[in-house]
Design brief:
This protein has one domain: NAD(P)-binding Rossmann-like Domain (Rossmann fold, 3-Layer(aba) Sandwich), CATH 3.40.50. Helices cover 32% and strands 22% of the residues. The chain has a seven-stranded parallel sheet with strand order 7-6-5-8-9-10-15, with helices on both faces. The structure holds NADP nicotinamide-adenine-dinucleotide phosphate (NAP). NADP nicotinamide-adenine-dinucleotide phosphate (NAP) binds next to helix 1, strand 6 and helix 2. GO terms for molecular function: protein-containing complex binding. InterPro entries: ComplexI_NDUFA9_subunit, Epimerase_deHydtase, NAD(P)-bd_dom_sf. This is NAD-dependent epimerase/dehydratase domain-containing protein.
Length: 306
């Protein structure tokens, strides 16, 4: 662990006392760590000793040593070039988190100052050399998923993520965050389609391999500005007002929630920024694990919103 000496703003070099004294260790000052071992994670230490401004360097008065463990995050976003993945990369960069993205297309072609702060690795999760990607990572976030034939949907929503979860587990990565999907109260014959079956298979893998730190976010329709080549599709023009309307009437529509497939109409959309912030919250808050609904995603996003 590297040690950094920090002079508090109020202290002068004369009041900085290098005397042995009782160290106080604050693990919870920056993060609430309760479930996984900090020793697994890359950290740097901040050590400082200080005394009241009125105490001079020659006095024998007691000093306080503070040793704080600050975790530096390094996340791997699978599908970081996609709609949701790029929002996660951008939010992570803004929080000072080191980000590596993996997708077949690699670095996006559109401009953005945050794009230069992400390491873009082109690759397919089925053929990836994980050695180039995972060592040193503190979390893997998977946004991999998509549509196609039944077989393709099972493969991309399910198997691709199962491969990723197992690779992360093998490399000892402490957290896995999976962007899944809300079930919309669909009848079971529809939930057995490749898309939903793939998602649920991936969810089970996350929750069984990461019982105390795996996170599954289940958003419904996600709105924001989706980039397709050089165009931007403003999904927020529909999604944002729709979210507001559905939230304002949810007390009246609650009785309808038990109807099959009712959530296709009633589940509130969620902004891509909220999904990204909920993912960031799940990376930085170790008390956050398990399956998260649309409302819980909104709540988690609020915790890290500035
Ligand atoms: N958008 C929504 O409204 C919504 C709602 C609920 C849930 N979701 C879920 O949220 C996730 C993200 O959705 P999205 O809209 O952001 O999708 P997206 O824009 O299509 O992003 C998917 C990303 O995964 C990458 N990818 C796909 N196959 C890959 C592979 N074999 N290896 C490496 N990377 C691969 C894609 O990049 P390359 O093609 O370049 O590889 C892309 O970056 C999906 O799982 C989706 O099911 C989305």
């Amino acid at each position: 662990m590297a040690s950094v000496l920090v002079f508090p703003a109020t202290s002068t070099s004369a009041s900085f006392l290098l005397r042995p004294s009782l160290p106080i260790r604050f693990n919870s000052l920056f993060h609430n760590r309760s479930t996984i071992s900090l020793t697994q994670l890359p950290r740097f230490g901040v050590r400082c000793s200080y005394a009241e401004a009125s105490i001079n360097a020659d006095s024998n008065s007691a000093t306080i040593d503070v040793v704080a463990d600050v975790r530096s995050e390094r996340i791997v976003v699978l599908g970081g070039s996609g709609f949701v993945g790029s929002a996660i990369c951008k939010a992570a960069v803004s929080k000072g988190i080191e980000v590596v993205s993996v997708s077949r297309s690699g670095r996006p072609t559109y401009p953005g100052s945050w794009i230069d702060q992400v390491s873009w690795i082109p690759g397919d999760v089925f053929y990836l050399n994980w050695d180039e990607v995972l060592p040193g990572a503190t979390a893997v976030v998977s946004t991999i998923g998509g549509f196609g034939s039944e077989e393709q949907m099972l493969r991309i929503n399910g198997e691709a993520n199962v491969v990723a979860v197992n690779a992360a587990k093998d490399y000892g990565i402490p957290k896995f965050v999976f962007i899944s999907v809300h079930d919309y109260n669909l009848p079971s014959f529809l939930l057995s389609s490749g898309y939903f079956a793939g998602k649920r298979k991936a969810e089970s893998e996350v929750l069984s391999k990461y019982p105390n730190s795996g996170i599954v976010l289940r958003p419904g329709f996600i709105y924001g500005k989706r980039r397709v080549d050089s165009y931007e599709i403003p999904l927020d023009l529909v999604g944002e007002p729709l979210e507001r309307i559905l939230r304002s009437v949810e007390n009246f529509t609650k009785p309808l929630n038990s109807l099959p497939a009712s959530d296709l109409i009633l589940a509130p959309p969620v902004s891509v920024d909220d999904v990204a912030l909920a993912a960031i919250n799940s990376i930085t808050d170790d008390d956050f694990f398990g399956v998260y609904t649309i409302d819980q995603i909104k709540e988690a996003a609020k915790k890290v919103k500035v």
